[in-house]
Structures are given as C-alpha cells and as structure tokens.
Amino acid sequence: MIEGHGDDTFRYGDKVCHNFSTNICSAVDHSALTAHLAKSGDCLTTYPEPTPSEVEALLAGLLGIEAGEVMVTNGATEAIYLTAHLLQGRKSAIVVPTFREYQDACRLYGHEIEFVNDVGQINETSDAVWLCNPNNPDGRVTDKKVLLASVDSQEPTDRLWVIDQAYADYTALPLISPGEAVSRTNVILLHSLTKRFAVPGLRIGYAIGNRSLMDRLRALRMPWSVNSLAIEGAKFLLAHADDYRIDADGLHSEVVRLGRGMEEMGIAVSPTDCNFILCRLPEGSASTLKEYMVEHHGILIRDASNFEGLDGCYFRVAAQTPQENDMFLNALRQWMKS
Questions:
Q1: CA distance 60 to 208
Q2: Inter-residue contact 274 to 252 (CB < 8 Å)
Q3: Rg of the chain's alpha carbons, rounded to an integer?
Q4: Which run of H or E residues covers position 255?
Q5: Which of 119, 125, 291, 299 has an alpha carbon within 20 to 30 A of 88's alpha carbon?
Q6: What's the start-to-end Cα distance of the chain, in Å?
Q7: 3-class secondary structure, 206
Q8: 175-184 pLDDT per residue, tens
C-alpha cells in the first residue's frame, strides 16, 4: 500500500505541528541519536553488510534467543512481504480490520485470502493466519492463552501463524515471547524498532522464528536491504534502550480519556488495550475532518476508511502528551459544532 498510511506529513509540509496519525508517542528526545548519526557519515562511503548480522546478534542477545532466530529487515513491512513470498500461492486468513499491508502482500504473491473477525472463525483449510496483536487500528489485544491454544491445537498442524507485535511496547497485557515463538515451528513474530523507539524514518524491523523458518525467509531477502545509517541507528538505540522508556499505562490512560471526551461529543470509540483508538463519526467523513484539523489546527489524524471492513466515517488517533490531547479534543469540539 503506497498510499493511505498514517503519518503522511510529507503531504502537508510544515502545516503539521501535532501528529496523532501514527501509532507512536512523538514526544521523544532524539538529539543523542541524531548527533551519533551525524558523526557516522563515513559509513555512507562504503557498502553495509549484505545482511545486518551485527544488529541481529545484538537483538538476539537482548531477546535471549540465538542470532539465527532473528532476522532484521527494512521495517517490519519487508518482513511481511518476505513472508507472503514464502507462502506464495497459499491460502491465508487475515483477522480484520487490520493493517492493509498483509492483504496487499498476500495478493502480490497470489494468495487466496479469507477475512475473519477473530481467530475462532478461521477455516480449517487456511495455510496461514495473519494477526496484528495489539491490533492496528483498534488497539485490541488477543488473549495470549487463547492465541497460544489456537497456535498449538488447530488443524492443519503446519499452519503458519504470522503475528505482528509491532505495538508490543504500548500495551501492558501479556504477549507471546521470543522464546515461546522460537520453540514452535509454526510461528513468526514481527516487531519494529520504529514503534519501540519512535523512528519511522529509519525503517528497522525484525522477524523472530525458529531457525528453519528464518533460514527460509533469509533465502528470499535481497542483499543490502538495510542501509548503513539504519544499521548505525539501530546499534545506537539498542545500546541506549533504557533512555527510551515507554509509559504504556500512562499512554493508555490518556487514550481512554480521549475516548471519553469523544464519546461526549457523540463519536463512537472502540475499546482499546493500547495507546491508540479507533473512532467513528456520527456524520460527516473522516477525510473532511482530517483536512480541517490540519488546515485549522496543525493536527494530523489517521483517516481509517481504507481498512478492510471500515467506511468513510472511521478515523484513528494515538495519545500524545496531555497538553496535546486537550488541544485535540478542543479542536474536535469546534469541528463537531460547525
């Protein structure tokens, strides 16, 4: 999906002052990272490693798994497309509404796609299941015990579960651990430094799975897919992870407060276990609201109408600072009154 993602600030130049459209908290001090990258300019004059094995080794040590059980990619999106390529021509079940890249990647590689609303509806003939957990766009978390029971008991036993945990750091609920994933032959976990460290421009993601699965994915990865600055940035961030703490409980409390404020205006909101929330206008379109918020208040939201199963009234916002959240609610009240 080239068009239709959140965080399309490139469309608006310097009009955007407050970004609610991407599922990360933007109040992060990156001055140390940018200073480090400025000092690392010499890396641009040579090729990076054909595969980012140094970052993979660092991640493996932090996650308590073997280096061969993690594969670093050009954002989690590359891992999505590599996995769809691995399963070329198979039948995939996608739990919706969810991130559009799963279905776009599956269609690119000739999958037969089945859309379901939860893991209990999956057809026995499906070769793979794609699940975002916490889910984008509504922030819901599928219970870990229920999910692992499905992974371990459903037929066919070789069905591959592709579980995107990019937003893992933004929920306090338990999720599948790297160790639990690599101990199984039918699970690929997707993660993202984009979300963990609020660096979407670096394009660093990774996949976790048992060695056999990762070897099969690596065979499909093109050389040098992760550039030198991204590798340098990833090494710096992993070494300074303690400086990037995410207050998942605090952000969740703020997004619940946002939800209450919107409900008072007549806007429907979905329950969320995360830092972002899916909303539906009682009338009017999300695209019109989006343009109004940018033009009049410098606030960018996510028009969610292009998620499978959602219509033009849906939008998504992620909690930011309390002050920014108050600003958002005030701007929204003005639009609703007009």
A1: 9
A2: yes
A3: 20
A4: helix 248-264
A5: 119
A6: 33
A7: strand
A8: 999 999 999 9
